[in-house]
Amino acid sequence: MLRLKKLTKIYKTGDRALNDVDLEVPTGQVLALIGPSGAGKSTLIRCINRLVEPTSGTVELGDVELTGLGLGGLRKERRRMGMIFQEYALVERLTVMENVLSGRLGYVGFWRSFLRKYPQKDVDEAFRLLDRVGLVEMADKRADELSGGQRQRVGICRALIQNPSVLLVDEPTASLDPKTSRQIMRLIVELCKERELAAIVNIHDVALAQMFVSRIVGLKLGTMVFDGTPAELTEGVLTRIYGDEDWSETIQKVEDEDEMDAAQ
Amino acid sequence: MAISTVDGQKVWQRRDRNTQFKIWFAWLIGTAVFMWCWQQISAATTWQFFWDAPRIAADIGGRAVPPRWSYMDKLWEPLWDTLNIATLGTVLALMMAVPVAFMAARNTTPSALFVRPIALLIIVSTRSINSLIWALLLVKILGPGVFAGLVAISIRSIGFCAKLLYEAIEEIDETQVEAITATGASRWQVMAYGIVPQVLPAFAGIAVFRWDINLRESTVLGLVGAGGIGLQLQGSLNTLAWPQVSLILLVILFAVVVSEWVSAKVRGAII
Amino acid sequence: MSVALEARLGQPWKKPPFISSPGLRWALLIGGVIYLILAIYSIDVNWARVYRGLDRGWQFVIAFANPDFTSRAGEIKDGMIESAVMAFASTVVGIGISIPIGLGAARNISILPVYLVCRAVIALSRALNEIVVAILLVAIFGFGPLAGFLTLSFATIGFLSKLLAEEIEDMDRIQAEAVRSTGATWLQRYIYGIHPQVVPRLIGLSIYRLDINFRESAVLGIVGAGGIGATLNTAFDRYEFDTAAAILLMIIVTVMALEYLSGIIRARVQ
């Protein structure tokens, strides 16, 4: 479904953010990308929808090669890639509804979007999504009136209304408290299952990643150093990704939490 | 801060000797320059007039009171003109300042190499020159009247508004723009959804702020023939009609106070 | 599917308006439009005159490409020096007077009567336009830079003391209280508790004000209060656009240099 081949990004400063990354994500798979700060997780995600222009290598979505597209073609393909951000990245001074509908910008013309005259089916879909995440009553509130968890839900709606085939998720829980973090992660995973979306989720909370996803990829200094299931993520692997530290606690905790979840 | 040793004892001082010396030197230079400046002013002043000033001030004050209230009839129209110069001038300036600001802001400029320097040049050159000088020039070009004043005010305001606006544009949260771009929005849609909502409050604030300043400035444009209540002021000064002058000054003061009040109210409502 | 959702499906959606009361919204809109029409209508433009003037405007633009610094070099030099002198001297004097007034106008360290008097001075200085003040001072003190110097000093007081007072009111109270708790006198309290916090900002503002004073000194000459403005006015009166362009260029360059300088100094101080 989504295929990265020898993806490399070198910034103008000379920093090698990504180093020959090869990665394939099949339809319906949720993949967690872990690694220390500065490992290139954000860059990887942004290279896929070309918010950051990759230096070399290719990105293929279905049978379209994204890296070769011109601006117009890129716009069209970006509609198929929903993105969810760390700090929610809602346009704070617009209402919740406008934020959700902004996910349709790739489909409507400038004047329609400027005058907020979206097609009725888009409006209905926006309300359905808001209802799905439990925010339908908030539709006409301004985005900056919402709590962190609510904002991230709106961000999810904005990504989903694009009707994407891939979700790019950048640290969705970094600004949230532990409980909300789990709720958001669960919501993302559920929605991906419902809609058969492939997703790449950047996350620095290893325990949270292990809890929810079926595949984990470890990135260190721009190079892939691990690719496997949560069960295969051992102390040795974590040391390889993050460096020396006592990891037994992290893994232990995860198992406990899993049991708690199972018991519920 | 520094610690030095004097007679085997440690002495704390706020600055070390070198810094202290430099600071004293700067003070010395500053004082010398000021003394020289004062000398220049003093040389160009007829001190006889200066010592005579209290008497003259009392004399003028005596003539100016009471203001000639009946003259008010002739002030309504110039006052209306003054208001129009300020308001329309601000509107016109904003229409021109918005594109200039977008061209000048690092994150929205179409070309940092060619367009941005031109935009910055427009900003600097219109901003550095006072509206009264613009009026002086425009009266010569467009002929005396309200129109020259209006254009003068709007040209002067372009740079001012564009500068504040482009600083606001540069301070926006880029991730919001990124998020809109990631949906597949076009350039103009990104502008309308990602950037404009973020700078709108700043824009409104700048507009009201500048309108307030423009009303003050447009009260004196008439001195060089560019319309508004300043024309009456000039006329009254030329004929030494001090009761009229005092009335006009009161009206100007009143207008300024009202405009400040209005702008404070509007800004409060927006933010 | 929730009830709230069912109620909304199939319904058109509209962005909630900025002003929620429809009456007020329409009143403001219609009032605004009527005002604009009246205002535009009341400005009569003599297009024939404008058309004739375009030629002169073009000459002026050309003059900018070809400014004449030389033929009135003496007058320009004297004017520029006088402007600079007025700007500098008035800034220094303005700062000197602004500090006590700014302290007096800060509610957290001043007593009420002093506060009211200082605020009144600030309000008066800010409300009076520089040009108006200059006209009055020229009438009283006669033509020349003294009137301009006094005008600018007066304007500086309103500007600096207000910002200074606000700065003091905003500043860190605990720091000042820490010094107070050592039993310091009023002056010591100022020197140790307030001064260090306010000085960097004061320096920045002073340089900014020097910049403004220089710009203003260029127009005071138009009403006879000294400086480059008189030379500029004469140049315009004689239609010597090339000389006028030269003067304007010099003003622009000086202002840019001052702005650049103030940027550097502010960055160093803070």
Automatic annotation (TrEMBL), chain A:
Extract the InterPro entries matched here.
Answer: AAA+_ATPase, ABC_transporter-like_ATP-bd, ABC_transporter-like_CS, ABC_transpr_PhnC, MetN_ABC_transporter-like, P-loop_NTPase
Q: Name one Pfam family in it.
A: ABC_tran
Using the record's annotation, list all stretches that form the ABC transporter domain. 2-246
Citing just one GO molecular function, the answer is:
ATP binding
* SUPFAM superfamilies, A to Z: P-loop containing nucleoside triphosphate hydrolases
Residues forming coiled coils: none
UniProt GO cellular component terms: membrane
* Record's keyword terms, sorted: ATP-binding, Cell membrane, Membrane, Nucleotide-binding, Translocase, Transport
Q: Which Gene3D superfamilies match?
A: P-loop containing nucleotide triphosphate hydrolases
PANTHER family under this entry?
Answer: AMINO ACID IMPORT ATP-BINDING PROTEIN, PHOSPHONATES IMPORT ATP-BINDING PROTEIN PHNC
UniProt protein name: Phosphonate ABC transporter ATP-binding protein
Organism this protein belongs to: Parasedimentitalea huanghaiensis
From TrEMBL, chain B:
Top-level taxonomic group: Bacteria
Query: Where do the TM regions start and end?
Result: 21-41, 85-105, 117-139, 190-211, 241-262
Q: Where do the ABC transmembrane type-1 domain residues begin and end?
A: 79-263
What InterPro entries is this protein classified in? MetI-like (IPR000515), MetI-like_sf (IPR035906), PhnE/PtxC (IPR005769)
Q: Which GO terms describe its cellular component?
A: plasma membrane
UniProt-listed CDD domains: TM_PBP2 (cd06261)
The way it spans or sits in the membrane comes to: Multi-pass membrane protein
**Which cellular compartments is it found in?**
Cell membrane
List the keywords (alphabetical). Answer: Cell membrane, Membrane, Transmembrane, Transmembrane helix, Transport
Q: Kindly list the GO molecular function terms attached to this UniProt entry.
A: ABC-type phosphonate transporter activity
Q: What is its main location?
A: membrane
Q: Which Pfam families match?
A: BPD_transp_1 (PF00528)
What family is reported?
Belongs to the binding-protein-dependent transport system permease family.
Q: Which PANTHER family match?
A: ABC TRANSPORT SYSTEM PERMEASE PROTEIN P69, PHOSPHONATES TRANSPORT SYSTEM PERMEASE PROTEIN
Protein name stated in the entry: Phosphonate ABC transporter, permease protein PhnE
Q: What organism is listed for this UniProt entry?
A: Parasedimentitalea huanghaiensis
UniProtKB/TrEMBL annotation, chain C:
For this UniProt entry, which segments traverse the membrane? 24-43, 84-104, 116-140, 242-261
Principal location class? membrane
Which SUPFAM superfamilies has this protein been placed in?
A: MetI-like
Query: GO CC terms on record?
Result: plasma membrane
Q: Which UniProt keywords apply?
A: Cell membrane, Membrane, Transmembrane, Transmembrane helix, Transport
Q: Does the keyword Hydrolase apply?
A: no
Q: Which Gene3D superfamilies match?
A: MetI-like
Q: Where found, per UniProt?
A: Cell membrane
PANTHER family from the UniProt entry: ABC TRANSPORT SYSTEM PERMEASE PROTEIN P69, PHOSPHONATES TRANSPORT SYSTEM PERMEASE PROTEIN
Any idea what this protein is called? Answer: Phosphonate ABC transporter, permease protein PhnE
Per the UniProt record, the source organism is Parasedimentitalea huanghaiensis
Organism lineage reads as: Bacteria, Pseudomonadati, Pseudomonadota, Alphaproteobacteria, Rhodobacterales
